[in-house]
Specification:
COMT-like; COMT_C; about 5% strand; 2 domains; mainly alpha
């Protein structure tokens, strides 16, 4: 018999190119939301607010460890998805300036301008996010 990691399992493996999505499943506050996902499907609305009695970004501002895990997860998710998009999508050809609104730490924008170096990239996010974002050439 030969055993290996399934495609779904690979999303939770941390490697140098992608990072792991496991951070989305490792915080108690997020798990409490996922456990009530059925309620969202049946009732709609904002499940995070129903579970924690406040919006997600307010919760994250009060819980820096949760915010850090979320930011890491979003960065890792961007690496996985944008890499695949850039393999097939050519719509950035001819673009001169690209603004990523809510661009976080600039991972997505950096991947795009790395493939299309003629694009001037502007990462637009909340001041406390941009202050922590690395500079990319």
């Amino acid at each position: 018999r030969v055993y290996g990691v399934t495609l779904a399992g690979k999303a939770f493996v941390n490697d140098e190119h992608n990072g792991s999505l496991a951070v989305f499943t490792s915080d108690k506050a997020d798990i409490e939301v996922w456990l009530r996902f059925k309620d969202l499907v049946l009732e709609g609305g904002n499940l995070f607010e129903k579970v924690h009695a406040m919006p997600a970004y307010q919760y994250k501002s009060l819980n820096p460890e949760n915010a850090k895990r979320f930011d890491t997860g979003m960065k890792n998710l961007s690496k996985v998805t944008v890499k695949k998009i850039l393999e097939r999508y050519n719509g950035f050809q001819g673009v001169t300036t690209l603004v990523d609104v809510g661009g976080g730490y600039g991972v997505t924008l950096n991947m795009i301008i790395s493939k299309y170096p003629s694009i001037k990239g502007i990462n637009y996010d909340l001041p406390h996010v941009v202050q922590q974002a690395p500079s990319f050439p």
